[in-house]
Design brief:
- The chain has 307 residues and is of the alpha+beta class.
- The protein has a domain of 181 residues.
- The strands form three sheets. A three-stranded antiparallel beta sheet has the order 3-4-5. A two-stranded antiparallel sheet has the order 1-2. It has a two-stranded antiparallel sheet with strand order 6-7.
- A hairpin with an 8-residue loop joins strand 3 and strand 4.
- Helix 7 crosses helix 8.
- The termini are far apart.
Length: 307
């Protein structure tokens, strides 16, 4: 074979090799694995990001050297999401103080029927009249016998209120000679012996004093009505002499028994006496009686005023 013939065959072989090389290079480029995009998340990861790819790479021309595969550019656009509204915290409020419990109505507001408070509510209340013209004899001189049993009121009360009594002989059992008093004013036990200098240890008290009655309605009574008032057993009680003297003619606003356990009975008796005889009370007196009853014995029954 001539030299030209060998040269021509060599060129053909070289061309084929180049074609194969180029084909292989393109195949390598095509077979390169794709580059995974890098996701950039927004603050709200609940929505998928939107990925925008750049233009795909163009294969190199056959006569150019094999290019290095360019890095794919990637622009990740974050999804635009409506921002989650933030609720501002409600302004703190100072809690209101607990409501005060209702004040209970006084037990005197609606007094029960037949009670001392109901009886008290029916008594007239006004100011004290002048003491002008008062005299003990206007209520009768000495003790009378209102129940006509042959004994005067003083001895009737001694027999009623004392225990272990004895009577003076020849008096048909009327004149009390000795006895024992459980004094309601002080709570002490007192021995009674009739006689000069000893009888005054036990006295008969007018629970509503005669002078007090005079200033609160007795001035309008007849002489007979005042006599009945002064000897009414409802208004009389055997008590310690010195303590009775300290009371004087005071009403419930100015004097109450030292024995607190007797105060309910004491003001209940005073209320019954004034209701029975139509006497009035001053506002201070009424309030004092109401306070004792309401705080110590609000349901206490009124004493009978008949007779």
């Amino acid at each position: 074979m001539s030299a030209n013939g060998h040269r021509g065959r060599g060129l053909v072989i070289l061309g084929a090799a180049l074609t194969w090389a180029l084909a292989g290079c393109g195949a390598d480029i095509a077979a390169s694995p794709p580059v995974e995009p890098i996701a950039i998340h927004t603050e709200a990861p609940t929505r998928a990001p939107i990925t925008v790819w750049s233009e795909a790479p163009t294969p190199a021309a056959p006569d150019a050297p094999a290019p290095t595969a360019p890095a794919l550019s990637e622009t990740t656009t974050a999804a635009v999401a409506s921002p989650t509204p933030r609720t501002s915290a409600a302004p703190s409020r100072t809690p209101l103080p607990a409501a005060e419990p209702p004040i209970p109505k006084s037990s005197t507001a609606v007094p029960g029927t037949g009670t001392v408070l109901a009886q008290l509510a029916g008594i007239e209340v006004k100011g004290r009249a002048p003491k002008t013209g008062y005299d003990r004899d206007l209520f009768g001189s000495g003790w009378k016998d209102p129940d006509r049993n042959g004994c005067d009121a003083r001895n009737d009360i001694l027999r009623r209120d004392l225990r272990d009594t004895t009577a003076k002989p020849g008096t048909r059992g009327c004149v009390i000679a000795t006895g024992v008093l459980r004094d309601p004013f002080t709570g002490r036990t007192i021995g009674f012996v009739r006689g000069q200098g000893t009888s005054t240890r036990v006295q008969i008290d007018h629970l509503v004093a005669l002078s007090d009655a005079w200033q609160k309605g007795a001035q309008r009574m007849t002489a007979e009505q005042r006599l009945v008032f002064a000897n009414d057993p409802l208004n009389l009680m055997a008590v310690d002499g010195p303590t009775n003297a300290s009371k004087g003619d005071g009403d419930a606003a100015t004097w109450l028994p030292p024995n607190k356990g007797f105060r309910c009975d004491y003001v209940a008796r005073q209320t019954a006496v004034k209701a029975k005889h139509g006497l009035w009370m001053t506002p201070a007196e009424r309030d004092a009686i109401q306070r004792v009853i309401a705080t110590q014995c609000p349901g206490k029954k009124a004493l009978g005023t008949a007779g």
